[in-house]
Amino acid sequence: MTVTIYDVAREAGVSMATVSRVVNNNPNVKPQTRKKVYEAIERLGYRPNAVARGLASKKTTTVGVVIPDISNSIFAEIARGIEDIANMYHYNIILCNADKKKEKEIRVINTLLEKQVDGLLFMGGTVTEEHIQAFHTSSVPIVLCATSDENGVIPSVDIDHEAAAFDAVNTLIRHGHREIAMISGTLQDPANGYARFQGYKKALESAGIPYQEDLVRIGNYRYESGVEAMKYFLGLKKRPTAVFSATDEMAIGAIHSIQDEGLKVPDDFSVISVDNIRMASMVRPQLTTVAQPMYDLGAVAMRLLTKLMKKESVENPRVILPHETILRLSVNHLENKN
């Protein structure tokens, strides 16, 4: 049978209110009494009911995290940062995978709020008007992680995706490339898709390179779409000399597509991307990429959420973390090509 607070009180010879104060770390309990209660808890194997404690304190010490794709290593690394900081501040995480589907994201958000989480982290998805409406029904703090809302209303932690893409394309331009293709994410995604596409166009414009619509293919952020996009570029009468991919995973697909044709990276094509997932340094040649500080995105977002949950002052509710270009072996100077 389940051991209750009543059983502990009877075993220790104290009131249920005293047991409750001990369990909730109330300082107004004599050390000798506290010791008796802890000994009774240990003997009986009592586990406090988190739901009941939450109802009493109006706090559940849980944080809901909505993740768009749990199989994507980017989000796994971000989630690690979230969990480490959550543990530091004694919060438990409820992690929910939404499969990059808006309807499921909204449903998961509502479910987490119904479970009385103390705060909510929404990670890396497109924030639509429907999301905003769901967030506005909440009485608990919400932080966006690795994404942001278009109007900048909701606290968020992210990178400057447009600037990251600009720096990636500018790296290719500095290496002598002018025929630069892009494998883009969906342009309906304002962060990883549209913002990175805008960074690509602005880098070309700043270098006086005309934008060519046939040098852009839209992918879905995954490996297979990188393979297919690169096949298209390889079939052009005038091939590009370099490819910028909006994500590492699509870039790795592009590299393999090039290699499948008996061509070499970077001798025949230079490839650069954004993210710096672990696989970027494992693929051959190693992938040059603009790194997101993925662990820090999660850690800083969770720290911001703890401040909001504790009603601490927050100087800047919209945090932009720095990115960094990691030069590896997939980019070559154009004049050095065979």
Write the layout of secondary structure elements.
Layout: H1 5-12, H2 16-23, H3 31-44, H4 50-57, E1 62-67, H5 73-88, E2 92-97, H6 102-114, E3 119-123, H7 129-136, E4 142-145, E5 156-159, H8 161-174, E6 180-184, H9 190-206, E7 216-218, H10 223-234, E8 242-245, H11 248-260, E9 270-275, E10 288-291, H12 294-309, E11 318-321, E12 324-326
Parallel strand pairs: 1-2, 1-3, 3-4, 4-5, 5-11, 6-7, 6-8, 8-9, 9-10
Antiparallel strand pairs: 10-12
Helix pairs in contact: 1-2, 1-3, 5-12, 6-7, 8-9, 10-11
Describe this structure in words.
By secondary structure, the chain is α/β, with parallel strands linked by helices. It is built from twelve helices and twelve strands. It has helices at residues 5-12, 16-23, 31-44, 50-57, 73-88, 102-114, 129-136, 161-174, 190-206, 223-234, 248-260, 294-309; strands at 62-67, 92-97, 119-123, 142-145, 156-159, 180-184, 216-218, 242-245, 270-275, 288-291, 318-321, 324-326. It has a six-stranded parallel beta sheet with strand order 2-1-3-4-5-11, sandwiched between helices. Strands 7-6-8-9-10-12 form a six-stranded mixed beta sheet, with helices on both faces. Helix 10 (223-234) crosses helix 11. It is elongated.
What level of helicity do the residues show? 40-55%
Structural class: alpha/beta
Q: Work out the number of β strands.
A: 12
Number of helices: 12
The run of helices and strands is HHHHEHEHEHEEHEHEHEHEEHEE
In order across it, which strands form the biggest sheet? 2-1-3-4-5-11
Which outline best applies? elongated
Distance between the termini: 77 Å
Q: How would a textbook summarize the main sheet?
A: 6 strands, parallel
